[in-house]
Amino acid sequence: MMDALSLSPASWAAGTVRLPGSKSISNRSLLLAALASGETEIRGLLDSEDTRVMLAALATLGVSIVPCGPDVLRVTGGAGSFPVKEADLFLGNAGTAFRSLTAALALSGGHYHLSGVARMHERPIADLVDSLRGLGADIRYLGAEGFPPLAIFPARETPSGELRIGVRGDVSSQFLTALLMALPLMGRTTQIEVIGELISKPYIEITLNLMARFGIDVTRSGWQHFSIAAGQGGKSPGLLYVEGDASSASYFLAAGAIGGGPVRVEGIGRNSIQGDLRFTEALQQMGADVEMGDNHVVVRAPRSGKLKAIDADFNHIPDAAMTLAVLALFADGVSTLRNIASWRVKETDRIAAMATELAKLGATVEEGADYLSVTPPARLNRDVAIDTYDDHRMAMCFSLAALGGVPLVINDPGCVAKTYPGYFEDFARIAAPVIAIDGPSASGKGTVASLVAGRLGFNCLDSGSLYRLTALAAARAGLPLDDEIRVAQVAATLPAQFAAGRVMLSGEDVTDAIRAEECSQGASIVATLPDVRKALLERQRAYRRAPGLVAEGRDMGSMVFPDAVLKVFLTASAEARAERRYKQLIEKGMSANIASLLQDLQERDARDAARSVAPLQQCADALLLDTTDLSVEQAVAAVLEWQEALRRPRAASGLP
To answer: What is the CATH number of domain 4-16+243-429?
Structure first.
């Protein structure tokens, strides 16, 4: 695991992200399935440290969990009982797992030790323990009073009749969630009174929704009184889908608001059961353009280009609200996040941590007991090293600062494994959007791609040069160009460099040599070899770096960068292309015959269109640009106009 991750300056965020499963839904589903009767198949389960902690704990407790494919598990429930009655469980820093298992095990008649990392032993649990003790549970502190680690023993005595307990709601909603999921084990009617204001209400909605899927009905009066009737042992729903994580969605949705967009996030939508989807309401208040579908959300920057400052109560979305604190760096004034006292008892003291790291970037920050005010700087400070405090959300939030066009370093980036192990890979893709340009030989795609990249400040990939270099290197090595295995070996170890518009092979400038007709024909031959294409695939993808890439070539949009935000198929009549090629050769002092060039182009078009690997054809999602009657500058302007139109709301974009 690397100690630090350097993020390059980025200026445009665009693309599509498929979310991993919700941590909140995943861990609740696992515990409910373990306590229910019957088998539950859970699909879309999040694979992260927090879910692995829960899975390991349940396996230690004797619950049968069988993998049935990627992100799919089959859990055989114990009908209200854990088979193993004595165990020592290490639960890391997974608050959802620690609190919910504390309640379930306290009512299970066994002897258990529960511990975690040092920070978990600093996170208060007394309110939950006091409530469980009111039910007769025997729970003892093994360290500081009111904090983990805990020892749980079989209950010494259970009160008779209907059960009534109270629990504080203003520290963590996980205490109420833990009680709600565990109390059906008692088999008796239970009344819960919430003391104080209940925070994070949307997370309780998730709990109630999932309990209903397992046949457990909870009635409530407002957010202060909850009732669970006797005799409601959970029953498996058979199949359960985990929707994408709405808290994790906030980073990518925010990226669209900062970096122009469109950023499309799949896995959540208007039908989501997660309250953190209300993060989109805050984005709209800040002026961002938000499109909501059944299972996706698309965000673009405000039409004005500047986010509005926000001042609001974010008690209902405390995790997603952290993302808003970083968004405040890009707002037009002072933003204040209120009623966020729960940040103090999370993976770290998030109010203090956010204040410290935002100040590093140049913001003026006012920190209160339950609020944070952020005044953005005129310009973000560069080359800042962000400390993450072993807190996954700190790392993910502050990655967004790179979209301000500044390089920065994220210390301990591996902490994102808690909920989103692949976060930085997904972020890198949307922070380095790709424009793919394809078309027949001599259509001008190389020239247009280079100029578009220059105008946008993007990297440029001339994939044809890699195939030409492969053909040249193979020919110089005396290899038949149809010797797939040995030519692929040449491609995999190609000593190629691109710098200042020149192409180097083993230190030799071969820019002109690879443009010779013989080399062009050789490139067409080696490009049909699957092993050669495979060898060059990762080499081509490595060119994708912030702030973006313009990639030209036959399969850029279909195979190499299928997620390219803009795909263009550049074409022109064969006669126009032959004339352009003729002029190029004459200008270089090379002899040429236009009739011969026309015949060569027509034959190459036919050969390229007929080949089995990456045939010459327009991708279904590519825009057609016929340049027969266009100058190079007009073609470049057309591509740039399409790129700019992507940032506008669909109704106003003018895109075909």
So the answer is: 3.65.10.10
